[in-house]
Specification:
365 residues, mainly alpha, three-stranded mixed beta sheet, two-stranded parallel ribbon, 62% helix, globular
Length: 365
């Protein structure tokens, strides 16, 4: 798909400038209509444990939706788009980061890299999902192919992914992190553990686990899915560094995820991801308005809730056809059974397989 960007360059630039301004009243109201219901649902879920766990589960499902909405506020603060004041963004960002278990400065850095490199085949590895091209995959050894297949398997990505996300990935500092970022990561970890410990002492650790556990897990699944479908749709955008363009990456490589109104509200309009990538300073409550008032956005890729399920089969980027493909769509040179067994079960190779998988999980966000 081709989008004529240059023709209306001035129009979308002017529109972006109009919406890249936060409204303090809207931001405060969003904090209230998100934090208050979340805390109320959390407490109701705890009280319901004395009646039935089956009453608790629906309440934790609802609470996980508001947890996602808290993360959207955190996300906007990382872009310094939620408030006019940089300090206000940092304070609210660090508090919501503690609530959602994400260190503000580390996540902000990795997400900024994601925005600056999304769709650039020459700059993958930070703030994105591990994505290989067909040619790269075909050149891998059997062991490394298996590592990639395990990583891209939906059961691993959405089943184990949330556990890895909350308990491992953001509990440690990244290599090269500055002092401020390292301290923030430690403070976030300490605050999270302190809150859980205090709640466990007051309410009982089993009760806290039965309430907080499902909320974190379900919200993690939703978060990973949203990030996945925002860039991993069939006709997305990936180019080598010499051909890569920021605007094309935003418009063609970021989906317009058309969700039902209630889900759009819960996810803070993040389905207008093409708008967000083109104007990251636009607060979430203005994304829809900017989309509807900008003619350029009429031809961006649209993904519905139903069609997004097809994205589960996409595994590799085909540079020839410029689309994502499934494993069974590519031709592979067969490996003899003895070669496979030797590569997989020879001790050093098996060790590397496990080590490579954990390193890849650690490096993705």
């Amino acid at each position: 798909m081709s989008i004529d960007i240059n023709e209306r360059h001035g129009d979308w630039k002017k529109n972006a400038a109009l919406f890249q301004k936060s409204d303090t009243r809207k931001s405060v109201w969003q904090l209230l209509n998100t934090l208050v219901p979340f805390l109320g649902l959390w407490w109701a879920a705890y009280l319901s444990l004395s009646v039935s766990i089956w009453m608790t589960l629906p309440l934790t499902i609802l609470a996980s939706g508001f947890f996602v909405r808290i993360f959207i506020i955190f996300h906007d603060c990382c872009h310094h788009s939620f408030f006019k004041s940089r300090r206000a963004n940092e304070i609210v960002g660090m508090i919501t980061g503690m609530m959602t278990c994400f260190p503000y400065h580390q996540w902000k850095y990795e997400h900024a890299v994601h925005h600056a490199t999304s769709g650039n085949l020459g700059r993958r590895g930070t703030g994105d999902m591990w994505t290989l091209t067909v040619n790269e995959y075909q050149q891998l050894s059997f062991v490394k192919r298996m590592v990639y297949r395990v990583y891209r398997n939906p059961v691993v990505m959405f089943g184990i992914g949330p556990i890895h996300l909350f308990l491992n990935q953001y509990r440690f500092n990244r290599k090269g992190a500055g002092r401020k970022e390292r301290i923030n990561t430690h403070v976030t970890n300490f605050a999270w553990m302190a809150i859980l410990t205090a709640l466990s002492i007051i309410l009982g650790w089993k009760s806290v686990l039965l309430v907080e556990g499902p909320i974190l897990y379900l919200a993690g699944i939703v978060g990973i899915w949203l990030f996945y479908v925002q860039h991993q749709f069939e006709h997305s955008y990936f180019e080598t560094s010499d051909k890569w363009d920021y605007v094309h990456a935003a418009l063609q490589g970021s989906s317009f995820y058309q969700l039902p109104k209630i889900l759009q509200w819960v996810t803070g309009n993040i389905g207008y991801h093409h708008v967000h990538h083109l104007g990251p300073k636009v607060p979430n409550y203005y994304l829809q308005q900017m989309h509807e008032s900008t003619e350029l956005f009429r031809n961006v890729p649209a993904v519905t809730l139903a069609s997004s399920l097809h994205a589960l089969r996409y595994r590799l980027w085909d540079e020839d056809s410029h689309r994502f493909v499934a494993f069974n769509e590519i031709a592979m040179a067969p490996l003899g059974q003895s070669v496979i067994i030797s590569q997989l079960f020879h001790s050093p190779r098996l060790t590397r397989l496990i080590g490579l998988l954990f390193r890849k999980l650690k490096s993705q966000s």
